[in-house]
Amino acid sequence: MHSVFVEVSVGEFLNTVNVDDDNQPPATKAFRFNVDLKSEPSMYSGICEGLENSLPDIKPRFAIKDTGRWPQASKHSATDPSASASGKKPDLGFYPCNPQALQEISIDVSEWPEKTCKSLGARLDYVAKPSWAWVDIPIEVKHNLKTAPFSQKEKEDWLPNNDEARKSRGQLADYTRQILAHQHRQFFFMIIFIRDHARLVRWDRVGAIVSKPFNYVKSPNILGRFVYQYANMTAAQRGFDPTAILATAEEIEILRSYVESVTNISDYVESYLKDVLRLHVHGWPIYKIELISGESKPEEGNTMGRKNARGGTKRRGGGAMTADQTKEDFKQHLLVGHALDYSRSPTGRGTKCFTAYDMMTHQAVLLKDTWRPVSAEIWTEGEVYERLHSKGVRYIATVLHCDDVGGTQPQQTLTQEWTRERHPNILRRNHHRLVFAEIGRPLHTYQCALEMAEAVYCALLAHQDA
């Protein structure tokens, strides 16, 4: 995991945060963190209060929550098929003041014994269940320096080389893969508290940029200003993908009507779409994805002579657009929810597949969401399919759309820019989406030996043709 993390100064880290010039706290805003440093649990309420007080004084957009191992938290994970097998969860977190989010993380403490509530003290005000679908900033708190993922204070060997520290870094990676699986993100921030010091972290599909440690108790302005500015950022500045927005109640009803009335889809696809509807209140909200097909400029340095570096301009049915049609972007919208499958790694391609409902054609399609490495030597998946189809290769999927998200200004990773010195071969990654007409099902769901043999035979023929 060493190569995933890169340490930068606090100033350099804050320069990676896209903050508007007028997004500054007023001179009268006082930041304070009065934290009891005797133990990890004793730190929680002080940190929550300090973070809460750092938010803008206007109507809050975020709630700070203590998502420890509460009695009711396990009920939540039971409804989420992707809940972490390890049971790991952030200690604290920022959550949006969104009715659906607040409802999903709420815990009714009225049934708790009075003795338990009294023993929690100020922590009781922040009690909540964790949610990978809704957490904006996960927060990890460490009091034991041996179990901290990074050194508490600034030092050359800032990545401790002991089993407990490595497990803690793995824990952060586990949080990352869950958040990137459940949410439509370009990147996200994380805060690590190690006693009276803290570090800010920015994750994307290349790795994590980690700030040097700073004393948030003695110098509260660093953390306080970051929190204040973060709360005033747009969703895109906070790392969310602006082409994915929460579906409205009306749009969810459109999907529900489709599932209840459609007759020309397989039982497997129908069952999966029913899961999308069932799980949208249990960790997998339904989103509307905007796809924009337009002319894409070649990647800089692309000398392979291909039409473009993003697989060409495609429209419904896989045919090329005419010159007149490519003058303006061609928009499509898909409804997606629970991922059919997703990458178990926090870094790399981060491939996620969704059974999606196309709001234009009123058909079920497969959406493949990935972060492709950018290189003149690497063909995009869309280009590969285009060439295979042009050569008449049999038994391969039909591509309906393929393009980088953002088109000529693609969403891309940043961490590689800070790893050039130690890891010059790490490539930038662009957010890339493909839509396929066919929706396959896992091989292990085969009904009989003949069905399995046919699938393998078709795959061998495709390889032979290629």
Automatic annotation (TrEMBL):
Residues 162-254, 321-464 form the Fungal-type protein kinase domain. It comes from the Eukaryota. Residues 66-90, 297-321 are annotated as: Disordered. Residues 74-85 have a biased composition (Polar residues). InterPro entries: Pkinase_fungal. Residues 307-317 have a biased composition (Basic residues). PANTHER family: FUNK1 11, FUNK1 6. This is Fungal-type protein kinase domain-containing protein. It comes from Grifola frondosa.
